[in-house]
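In the design runs reported in the main text, the only information available to the sequence generator was the tokenized backbone. The following block is the verbatim input for one such run; it is reproduced so that readers can re-run the procedure and compare outputs position by position.
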């Protein structure tokens, strides 16, 4: 492929024109992408296990999504829902109302990003309950805007230096609810109840809590699935105290975890579902869906925005939902997940720096640690990613040291096998480098 610009030039321009804050997975400029493949400006091909951070579950530039975007752009790019309504917004709200595991009838409102959707989930819950407090988890991630950042349960890099934070945000510890170690169901129940009792005794009374925001699988927090007993315990707790049980399915949704929504895998019936990422197939679109009575609580004009539920983004999302269904991508996620799970099991047996393979559906993670101390080893994780990238596999971490899989679910068997082989070779290279350094 012809190379119009050099990577070196682009990196130099990036350095001069863009602040360091927006992080980079790799020094890479993308030119184009299709399905599970991405090409950089030098024409190098990568198998993409990042998928735009979980945004292209239906694959890069799926022809149905491209066609829907082109058709809609030819008709109406923007009128603003508040000014002149349009059918794609309506149709998508109706579809999501049927799809979410929330006992209906449901209503939906659209926004642009995951952060904006989590902020509005809190606003709607507060309006509906008349209560100020919100409960989220240590290690949880809900975005980078002020309230979303406050809900996000990790200091570096998300909240350090950005205070003061939004008030009335309380946090549950992650270990009782998410720790993947071997625990009996009774033990989990006991530990979860203990953590909740501690929250109510020393931080906030249940009658002041509007909503509890839970990721069914911690995304940025390290690809840790909630324990099924913990999930049910939280749902019960919310029901008991009139707290809105909100599932943040921004990263777990749209087939990634082997069902349309990960909460279905736990047989949960949340009161509210927060969505973004793969919903728009690459266009900025997020949504909050909940029972009509909850959703109608905010006053007219209290929620919304200029771009939320833009016609082109809604048309893309309708195409995404069609592809997910027709190509049975949730089922495919389970098959992909099983193959990755057995690879990760093998890697954790063969390499002392790879531990705790885990996940749900095709959302799988494995930790990179220092074999001596067992502590997280982000430097070694970066070396593993660099080895993989040099062999043509684009990977990223969560929480610095968890290798995570967010490949498009349309990845072919051949591409998946190739990617797994690269991951295996990269792990061998990292082990060999450690042995060489020690001798
Ligand atoms: N919630 C979860 C679970 C996420 O994974 C993310 C982003 O990674 C967000 C919210 C924030 O989404 P956005 O980056 O679109 O604001």
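Verbatim output:
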């Amino acid at each position: 492929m012809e190379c119009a610009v050099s990577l070196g030039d682009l990196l130099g321009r990036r350095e001069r024109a863009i602040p360091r804050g927006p992080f980079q997975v790799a020094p890479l400029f993308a030119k184009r992408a299709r399905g599970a493949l991405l090409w950089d400006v030098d024409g190098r091909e990568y198998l993409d296990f990042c998928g735009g951070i979980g945004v292209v579950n239906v694959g890069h530039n799926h022809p149905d999504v491209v066609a829907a975007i082109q058709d809609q752009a030819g008709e109406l790019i923007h009128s603003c829902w508040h000014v002149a309504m349009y059918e794609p917004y309506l149709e998508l709200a109706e579809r999501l109302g049927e799809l979410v595991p929330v006992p209906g009838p449901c209503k939906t409102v659209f926004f642009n990003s995951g952060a904006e959707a989590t902020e509005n989930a809190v606003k709607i819950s507060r309006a509906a309950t008349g209560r100020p407090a919100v409960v989220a988890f240590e290690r949880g991630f809900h975005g980078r805007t002020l309230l979303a950042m406050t809900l996000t349960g990790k200091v570096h890099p998300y909240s350090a230096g950005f205070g003061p934070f939004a008030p009335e945000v309380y946090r549950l510890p992650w270990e009782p609810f998410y720790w993947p170690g071997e625990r009996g169901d009774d033990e989990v129940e006991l530990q979860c109840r203990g953590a909740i009792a501690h929250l109510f005794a020393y931080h906030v009374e249940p009658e002041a809590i509007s909503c509890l925001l839970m990721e069914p699988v911690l995304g940025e927090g390290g690809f840790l699935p909630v324990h099924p007993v913990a999930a049910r315990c939280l749902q019960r707790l919310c029901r008991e105290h009139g707290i809105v049980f909100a599932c943040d399915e921004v990263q777990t949704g749209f087939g990634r975890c082997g069902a349309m929504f990960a909460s279905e895998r736990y047989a949960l019936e949340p009161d509210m579902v927060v969505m973004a990422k793969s919903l728009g197939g690459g266009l900025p679109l997020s949504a909050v869906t909940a029972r009509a009575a909850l959703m109608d609580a905010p006053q007219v004009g209290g929620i919304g925005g200029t771009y939320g539920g833009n016609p082109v983004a809604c048309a893309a999302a309708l195409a995404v939902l069609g592809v997910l269904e027709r190509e049975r991508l949730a089922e495919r996620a389970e098959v992909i997940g099983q193959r990755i799970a057995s690879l990760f099991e093998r890697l954790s047996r063969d390499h002392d720096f790879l531990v705790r393979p885990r996940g749900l559906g095709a959302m799988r993670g494995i930790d990179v640690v220092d074999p001596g101390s067992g502590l997280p080893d982000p430097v070694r994780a970066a070396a593993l990613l660099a080895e993989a990238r040099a062999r043509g596999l684009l990977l990223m971490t969560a929480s610095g040291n968890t290798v995570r899989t967010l490949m498009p679910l349309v990845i072919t068997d051949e591409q998946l096998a190739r990617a797994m082989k690269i991951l295996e070779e990269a792990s061998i290279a990292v082990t060999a480098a450690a042995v060489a350094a020690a001798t």
